[in-house]
Amino acid sequence: MNDTTEHQKKAVILLSGGLDSATVVAMAKDQGYACYTMSFDYGQRHRAELNAAARVARDLGVVQHKVIGLNLDGMGGSALTDTSIDVPETLGEGIPVTYVPARNTVFLSLALGWAEVLEARDIFIGVNAVDYSGYPDCRPEFIEAFERLANLATKAGVEGNGFTIQAPLQNLSKAEIVKAGVALGVDYGLTVSCYQADDEGQACGKCDSCRLRAEGFTAAGVSDPTRYF
Predict the structure, then answer these.
(1) What is the pTM of this model?
(2) How confident is the model over 121-135, as pLDDT tens digits?
(3) HSE-up of 157 (CA within 13 Å, CB side)?
(4) What whole-number distance in Å separates Cα of residue 148 and Cα of residue 164?
(5) Is residue 130 exposed (0-12), middle (13-18) or buried (19+ Cβ within 10 Å)?
(6) Torsion of CA 161, 41, 85, 200, to 10 degrees
(7) Alpha-carbon distance 192 to 53, whole Å?
(8) On the CB side of 192, how many CA atoms lie within 13 Å of its CA?
(9) Contact criterion met (CB below 8 Å) for 224 and 90
(10) CA distance 34 to 12
(11) Which pLDDT tens digit goes with each residue over 59-95?
(12) What is the Cα–Cα distance from 21 to 29, expressed in whole angstroms?
C-alpha cells in the first residue's frame, strides 16, 4: 500500500464481474476511494463471472480483490445454484427462479465484516431497481434496512463509527449505467453478465440478464462488446 492509498477513505465493493458492479467500482474510484473488492464463489453455474471480476479488479486498479467461498448450492432453490432448474429464456411473471435466496443479505454481511476489519465506512453494491429482474434484495427498502442492521450489529456502529451502504445505480436505467461507465473508462469487454455463460465467458443471449444488458447498450447508443456462443 502506497502513501496515497494510506490516506484515502476506504470502500468495500461487491464485485460480481458483471456490468453493474464494474461500473460501481469505477464510480467509487472516481469519488476518491481506495477500493477493496469482494467476490463470492458460492456454487454458481459457471466460474466465468469470477474470472471477469478478477479482470475488472486488475483493470481498475483496486487495492485488494478477495474471493470468498460459500456453499449456497448446498441449499439450492435457484436456477443459478441448482443445475436441475433451467435458466428461463423467456419473460415470466413474479420473482424469477434465478433469484438466489438471501444472496445479497449474505454477501453484504460478509462485506460488512471485511469493512469493519479494514476500518472502511462505505460498502458499495450494484443493485438496481429500474432495469432489473425483480429480485426483492435489490430494492431501496432492503438497502436502507441493511444499513440500519449494519449500524446495530457491529462494534464500529455501536461506537459511533457507522457504515453507509452505497447503491449508486439504484435509480438508473441500464442505458444510464452504460453511459456512466463508458464516461469513467470501464472496459465492458472484460465483464460477464450471462446467467449461463460458457467457460470462455461467452453469453447465451437469451436469459434475462443478457436481454437487459443488450437493451442497455442499444438504448445508450454504445457498441456492445458481449461475446455470444
Answers:
(1) 0.95
(2) 999 999 998 877 789
(3) 16
(4) 9
(5) middle
(6) 130
(7) 8
(8) 26
(9) no
(10) 9
(11) 999 999 999 999 999 999 999 999 999 999 987 788 9
(12) 12
